[in-house]
Amino acid sequence: MDTEHILEMRGITKTFPGVKALSDVTLAVRRGEIHAICGENGAGKSTLMKVLSGIYPHGTYEGDIVLDGEVQEFRGIRDSERQGIVIIHQELALSPYLSIAENIFLGNERAQRGVVDWNRTNAEAARLLARVGLAERPDTRVSDIGVGKQQLVEIAKALSKEVRLLILDEPTAALNDEDSAHLLGLIEGLRAEGITSIIISHKLNEIEAIADTTTIIRDGQTIESLPMRGDVRVTEERIIRGMVGRPLDHRFPEHTPSIGDEVLRIEDWTVHHPVDQARKVVDGASLTVRRGEIVGLAGLMGAGRTELAMSVFGRSYGTRISGRVYKDGHEVTVGTVQQAIAHGIAYATEDRKRFGLNLIDTVQHNVSAAALGKLARGGVVDREAESKIAEQYRKDLNIRTPTVAALVGKLSGGNQQKVVLSKWIYADPDVLILDEPTRGIDVGAKFEIYTIINRLADAGKGVLVISSELPELLGVCDRIYALSQGRVTGEVARADATQEHLMHFMTMDKDGIAR
Amino acid sequence: MSTTTDVNVPSPTPPGAPRVPLAQRLQGLGGNARQYGIFGALVVIVLLFQVLTDGKLLLANNVAALFQQNAYVMILAIGMVMVIVAGHIDLSVGSVVAFVGGIVAVTMRDPIGLPWITAVLVGLAVGALVGAWQGFWVAYVGIPAFIVTLAGMLVFRGLALVVVGETLAGLPSAFIRISKGSLPNVLGFVNNMDVVTLAIGGLAIAALALTQVRARRALRRHDLHVEALGLFVAKIAMIAVGIGVLTVILSFSAGGTPIVLVIVGVLVVAYSFLMGRTVFGRHIYAIGGNRQAAALSGVNTRKVDFWIFVNMGLLAGVAAIVTTARAGAAIAAAGQNFELDAIAACFIGGAAVTGGIGRIAGAIVGALIMGVLNMGLSILSVDPSWQMAIKGMVLLLAVAFDLLNKRRAGTQ
Predict the structure, then answer these.
(1) Same-domain status, A102 and A211
(2) Does A249 have pLDDT greater than 90?
(3) Is B16 near chain A, with CB under 8 Å?
(4) Which of A43, A370, A376 sits opposite B279 (nearest CB)?
């Protein structure tokens, strides 16, 4: 028996009608290690994990899954879980109105003859919560805790199933730095207990920090497996090179801004939480954006960045909103989304699947969605013109889709994001607010998005970029505001901006005292 | 600068780009394929009953009666598919039909005694008002349509009883002609076939072929994706043959073209245009596909919701007129289960329960499938209780088939 490797996947080939998603992929995971899998979106990482966890059952793929030296034939996720393989998906699979304890033992209830033993349920849940370092009562409703804590509940759930091999798909994508650090620490702690983890992540600094081995997948093939604790230090650049097949000298395109007059000014903007109406989510924030300028908005999770943007965009968030918005020096009313768009303000959401796109409709219909009026005469849409416009954006923005009549839901994240951008570029606003424009997008597509942002600025538009990735803000923005607890705590020009400098402002408490 | 020059293509296009999966290419066809499937199902069911009934199903008078009996479902299904695409439901239409029917009858009869045409207009207006009432609660107060229209079902059934009592008969014969009459045979007969009917059929085929060819040419002109020529021609030929056969059969019927068929035909054309070509129609699909994304794209979702229900009310008014005319009287108990017939037609016709997907043509075909089942089973003198059970099974199987198809098509 192979004692070194807990898992080997040999020659895995998975074909979908017309596409080879995986082609002869091998993966060898050593017992007790943290094994990272890197690759661009669409490289085949998630497909590989679905094969491993039995979501694609035995027989729908070629190749062998060897666990502890034995070939496995999983017919479903229950089979793989019985072997101690648990997968935690990017989109958490918790039931929001059930308690933490109920969620942990969902499908695996602590019961006798079909009657749930609540004392045992809650007691065991409490022990698991202690193990993952979550200080919440087991009977707390899952909807009442943040996404970082929900992630910990998922891990507690995995532990309750006697997990031996834990698979985490983009576990920190939605987490702030603090929660990410805690989660990564927890994974390292599990390693000490002998639990092997496979972690899929786009955050290369995290991989560099915790992974023992990194396997790189590109175009459905295993490219290389890099030992991370060897004599040669594996850098982020090294991993990126493997992922894209070329060195990324410039993660950000060169750009010389030509900055004009002020186009947007927000003054003393205050927004209250829609439910907890006493709480100020945005507190007296003021900022300006000039034509041709790319302005960044930095802040930790909960700083109020998205809330600020969405409340300005036609009061799409919050209650008891006060403050003034000036467009080209004149005060304007932005009480509805229609008014905001009419005043030339556009907001591209951070959550394109929930708020940005109609996934069951075509590329062309999504591109025209925010400016259908421009394509219509007497309420009748000129479909020819619409197709032409969509076709033009497909070429200009390099949207990779077989036709503009294809469904948006079938595109990769990067291409979906380009559809969102097309929609707003076609609406021809003066100010574009881009909320996390590169979230969940692979490195190559990010570069293309940055290029588009630069082009928009060069066309004389003001661009406000919200991002959780500081290098990104430093790479593309001409000026950056830092937000903390709903207040603007700092404003930094590109020349003076460093990550440390920004982080200092981002962690200030609202009275201006660094925490 | 970079020290590694031995790398792949330094193009701005990252690798992995040119793979265009076949599944994606086929996806563009997916929506259409689904429509063809339903169409095929209708043809199969018609042929099946044609054989089972020894050719009685497609007798001229039976075909005319098929449209006269089922006009109400088709009219309601047009409005319902819009409601369903937007992600709502309307349970009240049966009650609204009874209520508006009562209003129309009262308006025509003594002591009010207005001309029947005025009564029809009053009926349409009242229908639209009922829709506005429900639309207000759904769109501007935010109560789920299920609840609002469940309440409406009770409210308007109650009001129908108040207005009608039990039955209000003795309606003008001109009014009754709406449902029982046919277009006048002003062009005479050729070989016993009504020329008016033949002319309408011919025009329909010509108009259909012309619009399809023009649409295709427009796509070509801009180098846009078009379906294969063979498929295109086959599609038009099949529809032309379908309309042709229907036309010839109808031209032999006692009256020629039923007036309700003209009403339904005009509504189908108008509403297909509304849903497919106008901003309003596009907004309905956008809202049903992703309500929040639509709102954040500047679609006034409340306004669209409101008008969808106004429109549903209006069409319920049309259905009320057709139903009342057919019965020759307003009946307080009229319209029982009409909402379920309309909803079933939409889902058989491929509308998605979650909204965002559905077509007028699909809903009409769904209604026809139910209608043919009704008629075929009646000709076979199957017990009405069994008819009901069979229709239920067909609804379930149609949706199940659709779902399995989709699953097999491979949602990754």
Answers:
(1) yes
(2) no
(3) yes
(4) A376
CB-based contacts of A156, cutoff 8 Å, min separation 6 = A100, A104, A125, A128, A129, A131, A132, A134
Task: Answer yes or no: is A231 within a domain.
Answer: yes
| Predicted confidence (pLDDT) per residue in B25-37, tens digit | 444 444 455 566 7
Query: Within a domain: residue A350?
Result: no
Domain locations in chain B? Answer: 33-181+258-404, 183-257
Would you say residue A351 lies in a domain?
Answer: no
Max Cα–Cα distance, chain B, nearest Å: 98
Of A428, A445, A460, the residue that ends a domain is A428
The alpha carbon of residue A241 is apart from the nearest alpha carbon of chain B, in Å, by 9
* Chain A neighbors of B13, CB-CB under 8 A: 398, 444
**Average pLDDT across chain B, whole number:** 87
Q: How far is Cα A49 from Cα A17, in angstroms, rounded to an integer? A: 19
Instruction: Tell me, yes or no, whether A104 and A117 share the same domain.
Output: yes
Four-residue CA torsion sign, B253, B255, B257, B259 = negative
Q: Report d(CA B188, CA B168) in Å as an integer.
A: 37
Cβ B290–A358 below 8 Å, yes or no?
yes
Given an 8 Å threshold on Cβ–Cβ distance, is A338 in contact with B298?
A: yes
Helices (H), B252-348: 259-277, 279-289, 291-296, 301-327, 338-348
Tell me the HSE value of A351 on the side-chain side, using a 13 A CA sphere.
Answer: 10
Higher pLDDT, A173 or B156: B156
**Which residue in B305, B297, B269 sits closest to B145, CA to CA?**
B305
Answer yes or no: is A510 within a domain. Answer: yes
| Inter-chain contacts counted by CB atoms under 8 A, chains A and B | 167
Inter-residue contact A259 to A293 (CB < 8 Å): yes
Same structural domain, A181 and A65: yes
pTM: 0.79
**Are both A449 and A460 inside the same structural domain?**
yes
Instruction: Assess whether A261 and A401 both reside in one domain.
Output: no
Contact (CB<8Å) B2/A16: no
Per-residue pLDDT tens digits for A26-54: 999 999 999 999 887 667 888 899 999 99
- Domain CATH for A18: 3.40.50.300
Amino acid at B140: Y
pLDDT average, residue stretch A267-277: 88
Q: What interface predicted TM-score (ipTM) does this complex get?
A: 0.81
Contact A241 B224 (CB under 8 A): no
Maximum average pLDDT range among B2-16, B21-35, B225-239:
B225-239
Region for residue A5 given its phi and psi (left: phi exceeds 0; alpha: psi -120 to 50; beta: otherwise)? beta
The predicted structure's pLDDT at residue B265: 94
Structure-token pair, residue A275? 């439910």
Residue whose pair of structure tokens reads 């607890």 in the numeric block: A485
Judge whether B270 is closer than 8 Å to chain A, CB to CB.
Answer: no
Winning range, highest mean pLDDT, from A178-182, A497-501, B132-136, B217-221:
B132-136
| B217 → chain A, closest CA residue | A384
pLDDT of res. A171: 86
Q: Reply yes or no on domain B33-181+258-404 having CATH 1.10.3470.
A: yes
Which residues does A90 contact at the CB level (< 8 Å), separation at least 6? A169, A170, A171, A173
Q: Is A367 exposed, middle or buried (0-12, 13-18, 19+ CB in 10 A)?
A: buried
Among A216, A244, A272, give the residue marking a domain's end.
Answer: A244
Q: How many domains does chain A have?
A: 3
* Enclosing domain of residue A398: 357-428
In a shared domain, residues A405 and A439: no
Q: Is the domain of A193 the same as that of A328?
A: no
Least trusted range by pLDDT, from A395-399, A461-465, B122-126: A395-399
Considering the domain architecture, whether residues A119 and A38 belong to the same structural domain is answered as yes
Residues B68 and B371: their CA atoms lie apart, in Å, by 10
| Nearest CB neighbour to B279, from listed A241, A372, A384 | A372
Predicted confidence at residue B25, as pLDDT, reads 41
